[in-house]
């Protein structure tokens, strides 16, 4: 009987400790994300300052820890950097205009707004500079 009471008291305690483990994982997720971001920045050859600027919401200490760990790993394994693709410029027109606005009556989706299709035959419009 006494053993059964001890077992019944221990069961809720074990369940509570399992919950603590899940809470610790949730709290460490932000740190793990920062480490992953820092490691990715180092692997792509980005500087720490550039990585900080690109990820302002992530703590700098977490980014630095990941960057440093990846730097040591790359030096010991003699791994070269993998250059990232160039950043694409963002056009204000692309942000402001919805996708459906590029479809005009009689025009095609491949044409840029403000350009003249080949079938119009308007000489003055063809000689105008493109935007």
Concise description?
The protein is an all-alpha fold and 131 residues long. The chain is 59% helix and 0% strand.
Give the SSE map.
Elements: H1 2-43, H2 48-54, H3 60-77, H4 92-96, H5 123-127
What integer value in Å does the Rg equal?
29 Å
Number of strands: 0
Distance between the termini: 88 Å
Overall residue-averaged pLDDT value = 76
- Helicity range: 55-70%
Question: The biggest beta sheet, please?
Answer: none
What's the quaternary structure here?
Answer: single chain
Give the count of helical stretches: 5
Beta strand %: under 5%
Low-pLDDT segments, ≥5 res: 117-127
Order of helices and strands: HHHHH
Q: Determine the structural class based on helices, strands and strand pairing.
A: mainly alpha
Detailed description of the structure:
With 131 residues, this protein is mostly helical. The chain has a domain at 34-83. It contains 5 helices and no strands. The N and C termini lie far apart (88 Å). The model is unreliable at 117-127 (pLDDT under 50).
